[in-house]
Amino acid sequence: MSDTVRSPRPAASSSPSGRSPTAPPRSFLWTRRVLLTLLTGFVLVPVYVMVSSSLKPLPDVTGGFRWLPSGLTLRPYVDIWSTVPLARYFVNSLIVAGSATVCSVVVAVLAAYAVSRYAFRGRRVFTVTVLSTQMFPGILFLLPLFLLYVNIGNATGIALFGSRGGLVLTYLTFSLPFSIWMLIGYLDSVPRDLDEAALVDGCGPLGALFRVVVPAAVPGIVAVAVYAFMTAWGEVLFASVMTDDATRTLAVGLQGYSTQYDVYWNQIMAASLVVSVPVVAGFLLLQRYLVAGLTAGAVK
Amino acid sequence: MSTGTPMTTTVPTGPGTGAPPAGAHTPGAARGPRRPGRIRRGALPYLLLLPALVLELLVHLVPMAIGVVMSFKQLTQLYIRDWGTAPWSGLGNYRMSVDFDAPVGQALLHSFLVTVVFTLLSVALCWLIGTAAAICMQDSFRGRGLLRALFLVPYALPVYAAVITWVFMFQHDNGLVNHVLHDQLHLTGRPTFWLIGDNSFVALLTVSVWKGWPFAFLIVMAGLQNIPGELYEAAALDGAGLWQQIRRITLPSLRPVNQVLVLVLFLWTFNDFNTPYVLFGRAAPEAADLISVHIYQASFVTWNFGAGSAMSVLLLLFLLVVTGGHLLLTSRGRRSADV
Amino acid sequence: MRSIRAAAVGAVTLSLALAASACGGGTSTGGGSDDSSPRTLTYWASNQGASIEVDKKVLQPELDKFQKQSGVKVKLEVVPWSDLLNRILTATTSGQGPDVLNIGNTWSASLQATGALLPWDARNFAAVGGRNRFVDSALGSTGAPGKDPAAVPLYSMAYALYWNKKILADAGIAKPPATWDELVADGAKIRARGKQVLGAEGSNLSENIHHVFVFARQHGASFFTPDGRPDFANPGTVAAVQQYVGLMSKDKVIPQGNAEYAQNQSVSDFAKGRTAMLLWQSASANLTSQGMGGDAYGVAPVPVQSGTPGPGTQVDSMVAGINVAVFKNTHNLNGARRFVKFMTSDTEQKILNRAYSSIPPVRSAQQDPAFGAPADTVLRNTLATSSAALPQVADESQFETTVGTAVKELFADAAAGRAVTAASVKAALTKAQQQMPAT
């Protein structure tokens, strides 16, 4: 086994791609410097605004913009927890996005494995159909889906509407098409010798999938997982209709800082930062896999 | 080509392994000679697909069918309580939506055109910036890892947090954008309105590009890794300079990546609801009246779900044509390239 | 093979099960209470206080009191305004909603048309102490005329002119303006001292509607014909909208920056002493929470064209307020009615309206000395003598959207420095009317 798990780290690390070994010309270096500086500014300015505004008292934030805050306060970071039940929304979002991610990855791996490894009638129809659901406008099926969930709930007693389960189900299908398609590409790049060796060793097809192919496809799976997570994490439209106070997610819940009375800009920024930091950190930790996974999966 | 989708150009080998097509050795190859490397095994593949199929049916296809039915009904507030009783309106909703002489049709057409222009610009800019950045960061230099992490931040931020920050910056009286453009650089005679009026289009485009280009960057960066270094070396030996290498090797090699990337970006941007909704609320300014919010307003704010569904179906048909056309063109191009 | 298939089936079932149920683990609290537990009620409250959490703190003790009295436990959810109408809509569509809910009183007729709300006929009204307990102005905004009301008034509010004492004194203005001409004249003096004159929410559709409705009244016009058909672009309504938007474009009293306001930024501007005057409904609790003490501002009736506020063309406010409604699908009708009775009882009316600085729509509670402060007197008089209900027609929410958007676009024109003429107003209103559903 150890022999088979080692090998597949496709492209990203195995082929050291790069342009000519000679030093790039000065014109390129300057273009690069200018472009990257501009881009860094473009990306960083809003981030700086978030950070600096989150540290200002409300009157300063609602006054004219100034680059340097006149006084710093951590007050917004205290207040955010009492203005809206941020902790609950955060947990809801984690549960929903996390479950949707896990489910989406499992379902996508199974489907991608079938497409990648087996010949069967309808293969092409399946992949095209699944991919084409990517273009459905959410507006078209928001109300019908909602009605469907309610009716399923009435008929079977499974609470889909208003529950996190319904939202999980919805989100997982949002990321499913692109995930399946990305994984097909990735699994195709995992050498078939691996499955065969496992089959010869007496594993069933599923054994081969989970013991051999999945471990070999970790970068691809991580890429898909990150994508699925981000899709579920930021969704507003369906969450605003399908959740109630107990199950509300962050994407919708953050709107609670803009109330009947005032827009608590500093708290919005503080809360956005607090909820973003873990996600951004996780994202950045996984970005190495992400690039590797995309390299072999999506872009081949 | 025997791969599952026209978008993928997968070959059944691991890249860089240099192994011959592994499928040649599989037992399945004997049974299915036309699809080397893929095994025929009765029901198993269908079982593996079942979860995905059931979920797609439940969440996408069945509701979409219901939506199509709704589009033929006169589904206003009087009937939403029991929409089965809503009278059939035949093609009435469609006729109203495409009657471009009447205000409803006009508004829809206007919104559609705004969306098309917006989407094309946004996708083009996202792709351009993403590709330029990826090419710039192909060679390693000090701080490259840090920059790469930084560039992914807009993609990793929750949509609401990102967009609301831009709303904050685009405010007329207190926003950063006017502070810089007007107060500090004196570029404008008076502070600009970004969230209402004609400039709202610029604001929307800026936010969309800010959020979208890191994805293009990520994908192109991954695509660059697949270009064999030997190609560059060969070109360098031929005396091609760096700019020529980019033009002759990098960009052509990225073509398959770009075909997929552009389509995906197009569909996401076209259907994007979150950005305009958070940016402008439920009544978007005319100049930035994207179709998704327009339909949302038609159905949820004015409670005419029949008309809203009809508009959605029209939108779907348009996207179907675009996607189909794109797939057709790209797969044909590829087939000839493969031969 | 068999074992393979079994394993495959197992995996499929597992993943489906994962997807369908185990993932969530959340329980639905949104659904109406079921038959088995008539001892509970679900109540959707609207966001009336500084935040949703503040509302919970205000309401929960009262709900506990109700539970002690009646044994019925009320599950409270405070729904933000951004979500409330959508939530009601989806509840209506699915039949899965709360038992009792707050609605903006201007939605009454629209929601009445869906048939989802319990009609308050004589028998139902009797259960809460009779129709006569409520003041007429509030009852006028509970549904289409001639039909049983779809809801019962809960909190009443009216527009008033809030003015900053110091800014007006500094500008040498002795008393707040009583007519629009006075306001414009005072505006010049205030602007000369470098202050903004009048706050407005140019991108807030509802605020736009409330104001142009009153202006239309003052021009003797209406946006609907007597039989309830849209008539948006008649000479009177055009003049009304032109006058309102003209406060920015022509009279320069509304600062241009307010054209993009939609989230009550104008209140915060006023509380910070940036703007001299503000037209708002029941703003005192809000101003207090933003650090503006009650002695820093005065409250006066909203200006009229000439003379003093009164009925007819002297109307100076819409009847603002919140109604409480019962969802027809409730399984606990008695409990729901009892809860409405509790919420509209004199005691609760005093407590809740106090907390939200609104006026009780219940006669006996309104007379309580607790609502005798000068600010309350102005609001109470306005409600009693010079306010009018927004059109109680089924298409009211479409009206708010189309005309509110038209006014928003006109404000955007004004902010961009474009002239707002009778012709441009008429064009905008005509377009709005053509977007109304044909009936």
Notable features of this structure?
heterotrimer, B: mainly alpha, MetI-like fold, 3 domains, 65% helix, globular, disordered N terminus, C: 439 residues, alpha/beta, D-Maltodextrin-Binding Protein, domain 2, 18 helices, transmembrane (chain A), transmembrane helix (chain A)
Could you describe the 3D structure shown?
Chain A: It is found in: Cell membrane. Chain A: It is a multi-pass membrane protein. Chain A: It holds the Pfam family BPD_transp_1. Chain A: Residues 7-24 have a biased composition (Low complexity). Chain A: It comes from Streptomyces tropicalis. Chain A has 300 residues and is mostly helical. Chain A has a single domain (83-296), classed as MetI-like fold (Orthogonal Bundle). Chain A has helices at 2-6, 26-54, 58-62, 75-83, 86-117, 123-132, 138-156, 164-189, 192-200, 205-216, 218-233, 237-242, 250-253, 265-296. The radius of gyration of chain A is 23 Å and the shape is globular. In chain B, helix 3 packs across helix 15 (305-338), helix 4 packs across helix 9 and helix 9 runs antiparallel to helix 12. In chain B, 65% of the residues lie in helices and 0% in strands. Chain B is an all-alpha fold and 339 residues long. Chain B has three domains: 25-58, no CATH class; 70-99 and 305-339, no CATH class; 110-303, MetI-like fold (Orthogonal Bundle). Chain C is an alpha/beta fold. Chain C folds into two domains: 40-156 and 320-388, D-Maltodextrin-Binding Protein, domain 2 (3-Layer(aba) Sandwich), CATH 3.40.190; 159-318 and 391-434, D-Maltodextrin-Binding Protein, domain 2 (3-Layer(aba) Sandwich), CATH 3.40.190.10. Chain C has helices spanning 2-22, 52-70, 81-94, 108-114, 122-127, 136-139, 165-170, 180-192, 205-218, 235-249, 265-271, 284-289, 333-343, 346-356, 363-366, 374-386, 396-415, 422-434, and strands at 40-46, 73-79, 100-104, 152-157, 159-164, 196-199, 275-281, 297-300, 317-318, 320-326, 387-388. In chain C, the strands form three sheets. Chain C has a five-stranded mixed beta sheet. In chain C, helix 2 (52-70) links the parallel strand 1 (40-46) and strand 2. The chains are: A mainly alpha (300), B mainly alpha (339), C alpha/beta (439).
